[in-house]
Amino acid sequence: MPLLRPLAPVASALTRPYAWPLRHMALLLCAAGMGSALAQAPAPAVLAPAPAAPQSALPSLTASAASGQNLSELVAKARGYDAQWQAQQADAQAAASRAEQARSGLLPSVGLQAGANTSHVEVSVLPGSFRSPQQNLQLSAQQPLYRPANKIAYDQGQRGVDVARAQLDSGEQNLLVRVAQAYFDVLGAQDSLAVVKAQKAAIAQQLEFAKRNFEVGTATITDSREAQARFDLAGAQEIAAENDLRVKRLVLDQIVGAVGTVPRPLAQPLQLPALMPSDAQAWVDTALQGQPQLRQARLALDIAQLETKKAEAGHKPTVDLQAGYVVNRYPNGSVTPQIGTSYRTNAASVGVVMNLPLFAGFAVQNRIKETLALEDKARAQLDDAQRNVEQSTRTAFFGVQSGQAQVKALEAALASSQSALDANKLGYEVGVRINIDVLNAQSQLYQTQRDLALARYQVLLGQLKLRQAAGTLSDDDLRAIDALTLRAPAP
Questions:
Q1: Which of 183, 261, 294, 338 has its CA 20 to 30 A from that of 76?
Q2: 260-287: string of b/e by CB count within 10 Å (b at 16+)?
Q3: 129-146 sheet: strands from edge to edge
Q4: Is the dihedral of CA 270, 276, 279, 282 positive or negative?
């Protein structure tokens, strides 16, 4: 049985016509599963690759990175290195110190004062002059009994600590998302590079068959040139994919403080976790209860209201308990009374002092007006924060929901693309498809593989961002993703 048809003239090869009836008959046979019948038909018209394209180009890459670090391990490194996180921790410590400063307005204050001076005195009724040195020591103490402004300042300091904690919670969740973003970006870039390399290899194989078929006269020069163009384009895409992977790795290295970080890839086949709860309103309700940014806005309103009360306290009296002990020593005596020998005086005092402001040039009234306006501002900012939280939570929820549907659609598209490629290869063998049809089918298959991998990463990252929007993102969510990765090899 001859393997090839007799050589055709080049002119006819360049314009090789295909009969429509033959084309439709071949497609119907493929759709009906008549591959066995075609296998028994006469020898194929052209040389074509016998094996089908692989289902995925990703397993070979992921298997080589199974010993990489999972998401939780990378986050642990980032906590000890990331500059943004370190700055937020320092800010929280500063807020705690500010609160302790405000406490000082409620505690007693004690002071010690010492001094020495010399006086040169001339008295008209006494002959000559008199030199009188003096030494003194004073110990004073004061305890606020009634200072409403100080008490309010202390309450504001405690609210400031709560604000710092909310900011720290927000910063920690932001750190988790930033590490996860860089983690999935590297995995996506690795998968894209693997797909481009697999596509380039498949195009190279198709180019080789096109050249051989042209040499024996069963294909046109157009087939070879189309395959060569696709091969050159794949080479350019490979260079771009390699550079993109290099950049994505640099971003991850910068966050975790390590060089050459290798993220552990996801296991295949991958079953994405379901979105629970599956109701957007449930996520919104959770966010309204404890989302860190919303907590900050509520605390800011509390602080503004306390500031108004502190301004109103400017009209109220203050009461302090004061005590003192003073020692004065005169080494040469004094002029009055006429004591010529050294002596010392001791004086102790204790009492209550009240201070009542009567008029301060309308400063207190204007300060109250200012704080009331700032209180309205904080209330409006709280409303804005609440609306933003609701919107961002719903947006994140619908993004995850849409991503999951997209993954299912791409999984179906991947199977369809594989079937389309197989059918085009079979059609190429029997002469009802040309080389460009096979190349287009290959391109569609590998593009679908890349889109599917990226869509899966976006769903997992979107679930983390949804929990961040709701204010519930924690290390447990990272461990749930770690469970989806490849198992590290046993030592």
A1: 294
A2: ebbbbbbeeeeebeebeeeebeebbebb
A3: 109-122, 129-146, 318-330, 343-355
A4: negative
Task: Name the phi and psi angles at 471, rounded to 5.
Answer: 80, 20
Instruction: Break the chain into its structural domains and give their ranges.
Output: 10-97+151-310+364-482, 108-147+316-360
Please check the confidence at residue 11 and state whether its pLDDT lies above 80.
no
Only one residue has tokens 């008295």, namely 123
CB atoms within 10 A of CB 127: 6
Q: Across the chain, what does the average pLDDT equal?
A: 85
Count of positions (residues) in the chain = 491
pLDDT tens digits, one per residue of 219-248: 789 888 999 999 999 999 999 999 999 999
Q: Tokens at residue 245, please?
A: 């992977």
Q: How far apart are CA 156 and CA 299, in angstroms?
A: 9
Q: What Cα–Cα distance (Å) separates residue 224 from each residue in 40, 107, 122, 229?
A: 29, 90, 122, 9
**Cα(157)–Cα(96) distance, integer angstroms:** 8
The pLDDT of residue 471 is above 90: yes
Measured distance CA(374)–CA(367) in Å, rounded: 11
**Domain 108-147+316-360 - what CATH class?**
mainly beta
Q: Kindly report the CATH number that applies to the domain delimited by 10-97+151-310+364-482.
A: 1.20.1600.10
Tokens of 297: 């806005």
Q: Which residues pair with 233 in a beta bridge?
A: none
Check if 10-97+151-310+364-482 and 108-147+316-360 are the same fold: no
Summarised one tens digit per residue, pLDDT across range 361-397 is 999 999 999 999 999 999 999 999 999 999 999 999 9
Q: In whole angstroms, how far apart are CA 137 and each of 112, 134, 325?
A: 8, 10, 8
Q: Which residue has tokens 């050249």?
A: 211
